[in-house]
Prior knowledge:
Blueprint: H1 5-15, H2 17-24, E1 37-40, H3 43-50, E2 59-64, E3 73-80, H4 88-102, E4 107-113, E5 122-126, E6 131-136, E7 138-141, H5 156-160, H6 172-186, H7 190-204, H8 208-218, H9 224-268, H10 273-280, H11 284-293
Parallel strand pairs: 3-4, 4-7
Antiparallel strand pairs: 1-2, 2-3, 5-6
Helix pairs in contact: 1-2, 6-7, 6-8, 6-9, 7-9, 9-11
Amino acid sequence: MTHSHDQNFKNLILDYPIQAIQFFAPQEKLPSNESIKATPLRQEQLKEKLGARYRELDTPIMLEWPNSDKKALIFLLEEESLTARFSIRRLAHYCLDISELYKTSYIVPVVIFLKGGIYPQSLKLGSEHHIFLNFHFIACDLSTLDANQYLESNNLVARLNLPLMCYNESQKVSIYAQAIKGLMTIEPSINQQMKYIDFIDQYIELTTEEQKLYQDRYLAENSEGEQSMGHAQLLRDEGIEQGMQQGMQQGMQQGEAMLLLRQIERKFGKVPATIQQKIQQADTDSLLLWADNILVAQHLEDVFV
C-alpha cells in the first residue's frame, strides 16, 4: 500500500510541534513545563525568497520563549522514508539558506528515518590541512527505537509512532492497542482522534485475523482503557460511514452537474469555460435550481438568475 509519508509527518509535526521536537530530537532536552511558542515557517515564503536555490524539505518550526532572554530556535524536521534518498548536502544547503534568511545561527536540523539503512551522518568540507565546514544533524531512526520503552509515554507523537518502532511480531496487536489507547487518552479532540486513527492504521496494517484478535482482546467495555479503545472503533466506523456518505453526495453532485452541462450544450451550444467551472463547483441545491431554470430560460444567463 502506498502512503504519503511526507504529508503524514508534516501534519503530525504541525499539529503537535512541541511533542514532535521532544520525541524526534530528545538531545535538545526541550522542557515540557515551560511556555514555548511554536511557529511553523511557511515554505511558500521561503521558496519565493530563495528562488532557484530553494530545496523543499519538510517542516521548519521556530520556537520562542516569551518573557525570556533565550534566543529563538529553528528546528528543521525532514522525513525520509528511504535512507537512499537522503542527501546531507541538500540538508546543509537548506540550513545555510534558512540561516541567511532569518539572520540566525540557532538552527537544529533533524531527520526522521522511517526505515533503517546506511546514510552519511556528517559532512566535512576542507583540505588535508583544514576543515572549513563541519556539519551534522540529529537522526531519529524510528526502526531502531524499542517500542517497549514508549508503551506508556505521555508524548502523543511517541505513541502514534509505536507501529514504526522495533518490536517482536507477536506484539503487533498489543502495540496497536497501546497506540490507540494513547491517542484516545492524550488527545481530547474527536476530530484529531479520527484523523490519527488513520495514521496508526496506515503504519501497522493489521491482517483480518489480527483485527479480530484486537477486537476480542481489547474492545470489551469493562475498564476505562478498554472503553477508550472501544470508542476508537466507533470513531473509525463513524469515519467510514461519513466517508461513504460524502462519496455518495459527491457522486450525486457530479452526476447532476454533468446532466446540467449536457442540457445547456443542447439548448445554447458550447458551454464557456467559466460556466463549466461555476457548475462543477456548485452545491446540490444550486444545481437543482438551475436545472429547473433551463426549462424556461431564453438565454444562457437566464439559467443562473
